Amino acid sequence: MSQKCPRCGFIHNCYCEAIPTIASDLCFTLLTHPNEPSRATNTGKLIDKLFDDCTITEWQRKSPCERCLPDTSPYSPVLVFPCEESVPLAKWHQKQQGAKSNFIVLDGTWQEAQKMLNRSAWLKLLPKVHLDSAELSQYQLRRNQEPGNLCTFEVCAEITREVGNEHDANAMLTFFEDYLLRFQAERSGHALTR
Q1: How much is the pTM?
Q2: Residue of 116, 126, 130 lying closest to 76 (CA atoms)
Q3: Rounded CA separation 54/118 (Å)
Q4: pLDDT by residue (tens digit) across 142-180?
Q5: Phi and psi, residue 190, nearest 5°
Q6: How many CB atoms lie within 10 A of CB 116?
Q7: Distance in angstroms (rounded) separating the CA atoms of residues 63 and 119
Q8: Which of 30, 50, 60, 77 reaches 20 to 30 Å from 156, CA-CA?
Q9: Are 55 and 28 within 8 A, CB to CB?
Q10: Under a CB-based contact definition with an 8 Å cutoff, are residues 95 and 69 in contact?
Q11: Long-range contact list for 88-92, CB < 8 A, 24+ apart?
């Protein structure tokens, strides 16, 4: 019987060697819905493998993550979520004038992410940005996705692109396309054949 890879957890389709080296020093905080860590389809865990400054923390309705608060975060916290008061990411980035941002991404289904925002007064107080992406999602592992909705991994790749690191964003999306093929083969219990 084959062994699980201790790093990626796959048996037949280890993707460790496919993980790209990302030069970006972006900071991400993934606020994860309590249901998300147990889902095999979670893509936030991949961001943690790519970026040195990535923290994954479980969302708490009333207890904010200190890394997400303006007074305790080492960088300017900004929630990545499209809504009426959100501004385009490019506009936010330009206004920061080189100061580093802590990009907070709600990691869950779109329905869960909306509930997380609606139920947390502390999240509502954060500045918000939205992406101007016209990219179509490659992610087809969950049902009930609406057109234009990107998964957590794709959101982080698009942030990387919009702050000016096209090379890293392209490397991320090439890896993600390969990962999705490996994931489907792994879920079917066989090695990917090319």
Answers
A1: 0.91
A2: 126
A3: 24
A4: 455 555 678 899 999 999 999 989 999 999 999 999 999
A5: -140, 165
A6: 21
A7: 12
A8: 60
A9: yes
A10: no
A11: 88/129, 88/130, 88/131, 88/132, 89/129, 89/130, 89/131, 89/132, 89/159, 89/162, 89/163, 90/132, 90/162, 91/129, 92/127, 92/129
Give DSSP secondary structure letters for 78-134. Answer: EEE--STT-EEHHHHHHHHTT--EEEEEEES-HHHHHHHHHH-HHHHTS-EEE----
Tokens of 56: 């994954």
Calpha distance 105→77 (Å, rounded): 11
Residue 7 structure tokens: 């790093």
Which residue in this structure is represented by tokens 């289904």? 109
In terms of residues, how long is the chain? 194
What tokens does 189 get?
């219990």
Which single residue is written with the structure tokens 């305790």?
72
- Which tens digit of pLDDT belongs to each residue from 8-48? 999 999 999 999 999 888 999 999 999 998 888 899 999 99
Q: Three-state SS for 54?
A: strand
